[in-house]
Amino acid sequence: MLDWACSTTGLAPELVAALERAAAAYAAAGHGTVTVTSGRRTLRRQAELMAAMTPVQLDALYGRHGEPEYLSPLKARWAAVGGPPDPAAVYDVLAGRREGYISSHLYGAAVDLAVDGLADSACLTRLLEAEGFTVLDERDAGIPCLHATFRACPPEIVRA
Q: What was the pLDDT predicted at 131?
């Protein structure tokens, strides 16, 4: 069913319930366990993760609907140091932005699911979508997970 490799603290209770239903249906279909690798995170943790991404990954994950104002400074910092910038510098950019949504993880409306060992990611995606999630396969950006956002949670812009 569900294997929590992270804490459920701060996740929307409705998300947890919907995820449990989808995972139970996935297991009932004979596909095994779903592992949750990431849930709610702080802006500081988000900055750490983004600091480790390449500019191509940043564009793929955060610029797919147009480039938010915080993305150019992050990519410029990457280019200036010739590799991943310091997470504290990324945090400063994210915390100081004037506008811009970053991630549903910041307000407990998203989880990342491990794809290693998944018998049928297409089946899991369909089950999650039926429970009210939008699913992004982040393998396309070189990150081995399915990102599932629970649509019933209203978006929030987290600044700190």
A: 98
Sign of CA dihedral 120, 122, 125, 131: negative
- If asked whether residues 117 and 139 sit together in one domain, one would say yes
Whether residue 51 sits in one domain with residue 91: yes
Q: What is residue 156's predicted lDDT score, i.e. its pLDDT?
A: 86
Q: What is the DSSP letter of 84?
A: P
pLDDT, one tens digit per residue, over 54-89 is: 999 999 999 988 889 999 999 998 999 999 999 999
Where does residue 85 fall: left (phi above 0), alpha (psi -120 to 50 degrees), or beta otherwise?
Answer: beta
Q: Amino acid identity of 13?
A: P
160 part of a folded domain = no
Calpha distance 86→112 (Å, rounded): 24
Give CA–CA dist 74/80, Å, rounded. 10
Q: Which of 95, 114, 139 is the last residue of a domain?
A: 95
Mean pLDDT in the chain? 94
